[in-house]
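Dear support,

Our group has been running a series of protein-ligand predictions, and this particular one with iron/sulfur cluster is the one our PI (initials K.S.) wants archived with full inputs and outputs. We had some confusion internally about which version of the output was final, so please treat the block below as the authoritative record. The input we submitted was:
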Amino acid sequence: MGNLKPLTDDFGRQITYLRISVTDRCNLRCVYCMPESGISLLNHNEVISYEDILRLTGILSKHGVNKIRITGGEPLVRKGLTCLIENMSRIKGIEDISMTTNGILLEKYASELYNAGLKRINISLDSLKEERFWKITRMGSLKDVLTGIKLAKKTGFKPVKINTVLIRGINDDEIIDFVNFAKEFELDLRFIEYMPIGGNIAEAVLSKEIEEKIRSEFDDFSLMTGNQAENNAYNADVHSGVSRSFGFKDGKAVIGFISPLSEHFCGNCNRLRLTASGNLRPCLFYDNEYNIKDILKENDDEAVFEKVSGIIKLKRFKHNFNDKAEKKESLLWANDFMNGIGG
Ligand code: SAM
Ligand code: SF4
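Confirmed final output from the archive:
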């Protein structure tokens, strides 16, 4: 932990985790994330520079931030990402760098990312059927993602997590196929409830329903204890702040549930989000975001800390997303599609 004042919100939660969206661009157009026509993208000079990202990370690391997730858009479409990770892994106090990717470009970049210091990876995958994969992503090839997943395992990423969003009537019949896939390749599979951000285009499948479906097929499916968590076959880290994890007797897969719709996980929130445009967002479900790019240009670390501290004070105790979702309201905020915020 850094040796300066910690970043703490009004409810005593310390911020130790920064999620960074490095680009709003993407090589896919997932139906739940972006409109088919794409969105109006940032100009290159509007996207936060690597220099600013490193400067912010360096300052926040002195105040206790020790965990970073690189996301997007699709992070691997931004040039020079390996170099960013290499430089980030040298920042004192940063203990954990991970990335969320759609996996399309992993065949090209897996080993250089690993050598640069990235050790954990989440790969998004919503169907194991080629035609359906195409329907959901509107482009791209399932084969590339599967190659990326196998290569990530072979390269040594630990854990390799699969993020799966189920949409009623589109891919909710693949729950058991996904579990078998996770067991076969010893993966950590996380089902994420669909959030109607940017447009209410689909019906979510809630975690409870998925959990029951898996239990009906696998007698030994059970919530992992701390001990099992430490001894699972491939040392997946389980029970993170926002997910509950289950396992099987053979220890071959970890199944996690991220349930923003059906459960609140705000109580132990430790995170802050940096958007591709260089704004800080106190919470994924916050209606506003705040420019941090400008102050980073000044040579005043204390001023940056004060600005970030002020933004953190805006964090609410819990988000009101569930109420809006219950009323089937879409959460469409100014220029907010998930690709710019980073998920
Ligand atoms: N392009 C990368 C990818 O797809 O993994 C990283 C960015 S993406 C915005 C990060 C995560 O957010 C993905 O796992 C994606 O499935 C998830 N996501 C995007 N839109 C979502 C939505 N409306 N509800 C739930 N999860 C969503
Ligand atoms: Fe791109 Fe990821 Fe959004 Fe799909 S979920 S459109 S891969 S940013």
